[in-house]
Write a structure and sequence with these properties.
heterodimer, A: 308 residues, MetI-like fold, 2 domains, 78% helix, B: 587 residues, alpha/beta, Rossmann fold, ATP hydrolysis activity (chain B), ATP-binding (chain B), membrane (chain B)
Amino acid sequence: MAWYVTKRLFYAVLILLGVTFITYFLMYLIPADPARQIAGRSATVEVVANIRHQLGLDLPFYQQYLRYLGNLLQGDLGRSYVQRSQVSDLMAARIGPTLQLMAAGIGVELVIGITLGIVAAIKRNSALDRMLMAFSFIGVSSPHFIAAMLALYFFAVKLGWFPLGGYGGIEHLLLPAITLGVLGSGWYSRMVRSSMIDVLHQDFIRTARAKGLTRVRVLLRHVLPNAIIPVIPMIGIDIGIFMSGLVVVESVFGWPGIGQLAWQAIQQVDIPIIVGVTTLSAVAIVVGNLIADIAVLFVDPRIDVKHS
Amino acid sequence: MSLPDNSRASRVLSVERLSIDISHEHETQRVVDDLSFQLHAGQTLCIAGESGSGKSLSSLAIMGLLPKVARLPSGAILYQDRDLTELSDRQMSRLRGRDIAMIFQEPMTSLNPLMSVGQQLEETIRRHKLDEGSGAKRRAWEILDAVRVPHVEKRLKQYPHELSGGMRQRVMIAMAMVCRPKVLIADEPTTALDVTIQAQILELMRELQQAFDTALLMITHDMGVVAEMADDVVVMNQGVVEEQASARELFLQPKSPYTRKLLAAVPRLGAAVTLPSRAQAARVLEVSDLRVRFPIRRQSPFAPATEVCAVEGVSFELGAGETLGLVGESGCGKSTTGKALMNMLTYSGSVKLDGRELSGLQGKALKAVRRDIQMIFQDPFSALNPRKTVGELIAEPLLVHGLANAAQRRQRVEELLLQVDLPAAAALRYPHQFSGGQRQRICIARALALEPRVIIADEPVSALDVSVQAQVLELMKSLQDRMGLSYLFISHDMAVVEQVCHRVAVMYCGQIVEIGSCQQVLHNPQHAYTQRLLSAVPMPDIDHKRDFKALLQVDEVPDPIKPRGHRLPDIHYAEPQAGHFVALSSA
């Protein structure tokens, strides 16, 4: 077990290294020039060149990247070009709200997804099943920015059930969390449905029925735990998809999180922030997957780390 | 029914004129028609029949566990003056597991993989309010002990995947018997198990049945098991009862032609004619000191390197036109030996085909050799690509080896199909349009396409019904006579081996423990393992009921996992008769 985790952590470091390299390289390639952006429209060529030199942007790519990596190892993510403060400080101030929204959003996703999946599997091939699957399909295929704005318009502006965005108590959290949850739940409901149907046909379910267990007990004690197993690693993978939704939803609802920070940085070509947020997302995805994989070990006794 | 009337007192359950319909879309198909039988306390009724006879559905009907597409248009199942077909699912669920319990065919998949053995046993105990808390634990312990599971304390905490098939089936029996049901239904309970394990499970069921005075309904296709277990027998075919009689009557004076045909098709150990010896024939295949080891990946770099010793020092020869049977129980290395001969896995040792060394061959040289050794597999349903026509499948080896053009291939396919007694028109159809036996013929035709010298047949008839099995074996024999083929016939079924093999090798734990002519090995076994194996084979003969009690003790099979590079001591053979070798010490 300890060896398994060590091995996985080693791979995680490699993945992160790859992610920073790719992000930094892409930022280097994009035609926008941060020095000009900072200097403003009226700046002279000398001023721009001066800024460029100050930021180290005139160095060859590998030197820029190595410098960045060296600083990263010391916990220094660089300074924001635009906001003129440490990227790590900016992110630290926003990580709390983001984690809050993430936890709530994934929670809603799982509750809706798993419930709908179970119902659809039990009533499979009925009108209800088809309706739920159509719903999940609409959910996963609607663009976040439109769905988020529609939700804001109907439930906050028209009906007045929720405040008009912003950060605060539970009432502020609910609408963005539900929006994210509903949109992302489709993956889970489809997965739980097919996995449940699979398990329902297994021999051990027949055994459980032959033991005289009630339908409810068979479903909760025998079908569900077995059907949930493939969903656990899915949560780890989903964190990545979820993050992209987060950027949009946070911006629409004015939620002061990492997503909103990224959104602003992208508009201003604030490279240190973009790279910082990307690295943080990568860390979140890697850690999420690691936790999911370790969690499966505890749920499923068949997975033997010794032989994996 | 031919049962005397005084048996009414002991009657526990009776099925009266039961019919079952299965509906697909708009069609309805009658799968069981007008079935009646009675179960008596302490007695065993066997429903025997080949696949598709409706025997399993009948048992599920008693449990109230029929699939949704099934309907019961008529008939009644009477238990304690109640008609089970009229009970609601809630009422049925109270009876299931408490009054009527069931054991299924597949012990490997019939237990919940996420719950420990103890949890699953206690679940039944709690459901039927037999006991609670520590009482439930104690009962689980007792019943597991009653089915002779060793180290009960440890087993209760283990998960199903940590147990062998035989152990899992014992757990299933324990779970079914814990409430001391009045009726126990066993649907092919030993079909997936090795013969010695089968003997243990059958003996165990007999014992528990006597101890608890349970009525046993046993569903099986194996007439050997029927003879061993049954008091009364119902023979079913295509949903219709062909014959219903006491076991003695059925075996000694079968009335229906179907029963007679079925009994005639069953291979009987000791009944086969001795095949002429091929000892003088030229050696086609010479295997010496074959070893196959599978390295196990290390858990951490500090753990010792280990490997599975699958085949250890196996040597034998195969003559032209000869069939060598390779028998043994699952995990003994017989299939691995077959695969090694096909060069499908790496091995050490020497394999010579017509004096040519095959070990270490690669690329073109290996491909050329493959023409001479072909293989037939156990499951004809998964051995044929469902998206290709039969013609394409049979012609594929010719295509791969670039041996014929399109017209020649078509002609060759036609010839091959006729050789295996299939119409030439079959070439245009797809595998799913054929029955199991026909598909196995297609597999044989494909193996014959390259005119091989040797065919390795890995359990070629195990998945087939007995009547079909007999036909396929007959075909294999006649092809051998016509073409001088040599077969390496891998099987777990002694009676089948006796029918088709000239010589037999018995494998145990990766080694050959005894090899010799059929006569020598099967009728005068010298090695303790061979004797044990043969004593476990159920005989389709009512006057030879076997006593499996001696087999009930569980033996520990030696662990095949050894440190890497470990060398097992060489096996030495004694030769009590010419050509009959017996290992002096087993693994």
